UniProtKB/TrEMBL annotation:
The lineage of its organism: Bacteria, Pseudomonadati, Bacteroidota, Chitinophagia, Chitinophagales. This is Homoserine dehydrogenase. Residues 12-122 form the Aspartate/homoserine dehydrogenase NAD-binding domain. The keyword Transport does not apply. NCBIfam families: PRK06349.1. Pfam families: Homoserine_dh, NAD_binding_3. InterPro entries: Asp/hSer_DH_NAD-bd, HDH_cat, HDH_CS, NAD(P)-bd_dom_sf.
Amino acid sequence: MENKIINLGIFGFGVVGQGLYEVLNRTKGINARIKKICIKDPNKSRPIDSSYFTTDKNEILEDPTIDVVVELINDTEAAFEIVSKALRNGKAVVSASKRMIAENLPALYQLQAENKVPFLYEASSCASIPIIRNLEEYYDNDLLNAVEGICNGSTNYILTKIFEENLSFATALQQAQDLGFAETDPTLDIEGYDPKFKIVILLLHAFGTFVKPEEVFNFGIHHLNDFDIQFAKQRNCTIKLIAQCRRQNGNVFAYVLPHLIKEHNLLYDVYNEYNGILLESAFTDKQFFVGKGAGGTATGSAVLSDISALLYNYRYEYKKIKQNNQPSFTNDVKLKVYLRYKTPDQVDLAEFFNISEKYESTEWRYVVGTINLQKLREAGWLKNKDVNILVLE
Ligand SMILES: NC(=O)c1ccc[n+]([C@@H]2O[C@H](COP(=O)([O-])OP(=O)(O)OC[C@H]3O[C@@H](n4cnc5c(N)ncnc54)[C@H](OP(=O)(O)O)[C@@H]3O)[C@@H](O)[C@H]2O)c1
């Protein structure tokens, strides 16, 4: 595609679609122009000329003059159908839809190989942080030990407002939604599904292992209460929703869980909609990436970077898959946690290997102890709103 102007067909003109439009207009020297934008609702008023818009997906997918399909919609099934068809029609595709990508990684990997077309999705994982391309290009050997961090801008915004400004959970969530940081369905953020989709994608690029989202345990910040916040503050800690994948004994495990974070931890100072990713590798110890993890133009800039990469024929090589020594996925790992509950019948403390601290008051109780991640996945008692869990460093 070198030296030619590429024609873009965009799906979706919401937060990210409009962010891309703005970034594209303000970036000089990018050889790309928008030919058509496919949206869902023909009656919505749009901030740009109506001649751009269509509701017929085939006006993009069947147009031979459109080189690149940019998929930025909020409907997982429709997104997979659009991306699959575009790849089959020989078009390069850029997408930001983490859920669609995480749920269909093996099929999308296969489609790229069969049709010999690139599919780039940097914006899907940490919006503006160029983490996938770094995992692919810079960390293309097998010395990585862990990818860990904050990769949900909306929950980080909520936690920042709770800890720094004493806002209530509901007010902070409303602000995150008003600013365009939250997913259309905010439970995807606050229950930790959105960061789970991202860690599934990062795990493939870090270690070459395909994992289904349902194999990865996620627990968000939806049960957090004032007692937990006080517990953290008394220990000079903050709370962050952490997604991680980590090698252990030749295997790799992954989860999304709220963590108690001490001041010395680089993730402590990641505020608002920012994301932060810590990489651990054999010889470099820790490396830290930080940047905006949500919002129209921040995400749009990552989408634009992918479009620009297509101009020099960039594609993911999935080198870790090809190295053929992928670690197996496991949930058999011990975690040190704080478990808060109201009455003893609400939890099963027999599941713990050991308990090092116990607290009881008329209102709340908690224990600190060690438990297996697999037990947490199976624990029906974590569904009770009176029960919360935090991983301790
Ligand atoms: N917001 C962020 O900060 C962010 C960051 C990273 C990744 N993402 C991902 O990017 C994607 C888009 O997010 P968003 O925040 O921009 O969503 P959004 O603001 O809710 O906008 C969604 C857009 O998709 C369009 N759409 C829905 N179904 C469609 C279909 N079948 N065909 C064509 N258009 C369709 C909607 O059309 P109408 O306008 O007609 O309703 C709307 O323009 C999602 O997958 C999200 O997870 C978002």
